[in-house]
Amino acid sequence: MSRRPAPSPRGARTHRTRSSSRLRGWLRHHRAMCLDSAWRLLRTPVASLVTMLAIAIAMVLPAGLWLTLDSARLLDAELTESATLTAYLAPGVGDGEAARIDEALGAQPGVARTRLITAAEGMAEFQQALGLEDALGRLDDNPLPASVVVTPEAPAPEAVRALAESLAAVPGVEEVRLDLAWIERLRSLAELGQRVTLALAVLFGGGVLLVVGNTIRLAVESRRKEIEVVTLIGATHGFVRRPFLYSGAWYGLGGGLLAWGLLTLGGEWLATPVSALAASYGASFSLPRLGVGGSASLVGCSMLLGWLGAWMAVSRHLAEVKPR
Question: Which of 247, 239, 262 is nearest to 211 (CA)?
């Protein structure tokens, strides 16, 4: 019985050759369209710059608000970590008894550390703060009680409230003062700011889509005859759409870089007065920077919006462009 000859590998090689040739042709067309779209933008620098500047302005406000909220989150973390409770001891408690109560408060679960302020120390701090050393020094008795400043381990408002209740039950403690209203207000403002920033980001993102879409629509109209010709010879919608998509990405890239530059210049411009304002309150604060990740995100989002705006405009107008 004769054996069949093995199939020739020529067909497989031919298929691989054709696939590699198609891939090379696809890459060449992408490179050509990328360079051609960039050259078309460079041939109309004023119009291209105006479009990119409009994109940049639309990107600056949400990004600036995001940076502001980021600084507010950092400030909230610092303020929350510095949240303390003040346990006022009963009137007439001596220094020895106050030290014992201080040890008892420090042994409570959830307490990181304590600091005892005797009645004399409290009066001295009060006099120094008000500048009334002579007037208050004439008092016969010290009306201020001893107090213990308690730093909690968990700065969350719920945990601090529970800790305040447990400290108030310690014998010798008259009252526990806790002021978390300002922290809660700051968090409410931060949540409101997040929602406002999200709404503005969506609104201005839609604006970028409209700006790029209108620009690409005009480009499609100016090249209608060319599109009709390549469609007649069998060009697909993807082939026709490709140069306009690259144009939208170039617009987005330019707008993102301009937005990054505006944010950087604005941060440098505001850095000095912000630092001076923080120093007047005895604090050190500096405006947050975009950094590498933030800058890449800003430029990437701008390019994506430009690409999407171009895709939407071309897809809608390709249906209207019919070869005659």
Answer: 247
Q: pTM for the whole thing?
A: 0.62
d(Cα 59, Cα 67) in Å, to the nearest integer? 12
Cα 28 to Cα 135: distance, rounded to the nearest angstrom: 88
For residue 235, give the 3-state DSSP assignment: coil
- CA 288, distance to chain mean position in Å, is 10
Strand partners, 173: 89
> What is the SS3 assignment for 219?
helix
Between helix 45-81 and helix 10-43 the angle, nearest 10°, is: 90
Check residue 260 and give its pLDDT.
92
Q: How many CA atoms lie less than 13 Å away from 20 in the CB half-sphere?
A: 6
Q: CA 158, CA 180: separation in Å to the nearest integer?
A: 10
Q: 40, exposed or middle or buried, with CB in 10 Å at 0-12, 13-18, 19+? A: middle
> What is the model's pLDDT at position 1?
44
pLDDT at 6 over 80: no
Q: What percent of the chain has pLDDT over 70?
A: 74
Q: Distance (Å, rounded) from C-alpha 18 to C-alpha 23?
A: 9
| pLDDT confidence of residue 253 | 93
CB 279 within 8 A of CB 237: no
Residue (of 286, 223, 295) closest to 253 by Cα position? 295
DSSP strand E in the chain: where? 85-89, 111-117, 147-152, 173-177
Cα–Cα distance for residue pair 238/262, rounded to 1 Å: 35
Tokens of 297: 């995100």
Q: What is the DSSP string of 119-153?
A: HHHHHHHHHHHHT-HHHHHT-SS--PPPEEEEEES
- CA–centroid distance for 18 within its chain: 48
